[in-house]
Amino acid sequence: MHFGHLRLAEEAIAQLALGGVRWIPAGQPAHREEPGAAGERRLAMVRLAIAGNPAFFVDAAEVEAAAPSYTVPTLQRLRAELGGDLPLVLLLGADAFAGLEGWLRWRELFALAHIAVSHRPGFPVATEALPPALRAEFAARHQSDVAALRAAPAGNIVSFAMTQLAISATQIRHLRATGRSARYLLPDAVLDYIQTYSLYRNS
Which pLDDT band, with edges at 50, 70 and 90, does 27 fall under? Predict the structure, then answer.
């Protein structure tokens, strides 16, 4: 959890008129290597990072399940919990959205939630670079008015520009592994937790 994640959520709430952001740490991330910290540790860091923001909420269900996390089953769980009429918005960066066809049952996402794609200011989603099937979905579903997110529970795609912070989790883990400071890239409470438990250090 770093300031890039937090700023994305803060700006999404403001630009998309969201009621809040639910943070869902993965139990076992399915699209990347084994995490450098156990699920319970990652959950604790999310709680520390969002403390004090009444618009942010933590959902611990994926970590508690300790199973591979996939977005469609997660959204199905939320639908069962919250009902079918509440608009849900899945927040994605432009790079993640461009790779959506590699996700499990990706077409089912649109029946479960809207998708909001963040991009750099002045660099909207490059639709010509999207794979053909995803490009077709974008063309059919993209809305320029974010009010569309409130008009239906799911199915639309919107995009929005966000302040770019050149911070990545990979960068922070590399700094830790090489004994360098990661301060001012993430909340102090999270960095203190990482240091207390000697996370992301080369053995």
Answer: confident
Query: pTM of whole model > 0.85?
Result: yes
Q: What is the pLDDT of residue 137?
A: 98
pLDDT score recorded for residue 31: 61
DSSP string, the chain: --HHHHHHHHHHHHHHT-S-EEE---SEESSSSPPSS-HHHHHHHHHHHHTT-TTEEE--HHHHHTSEE-HHHHHHHHHHHH-SSS--EEEEEHHHHHTGGGSTTGGGHHHH-EEEEEE-TT----GGGS-HHHHHHHHHHB-SSTTHHHHSSS--EEEEE-------HHHHHHHHHTT---TTSS-HHHHHHHHHTTTT---
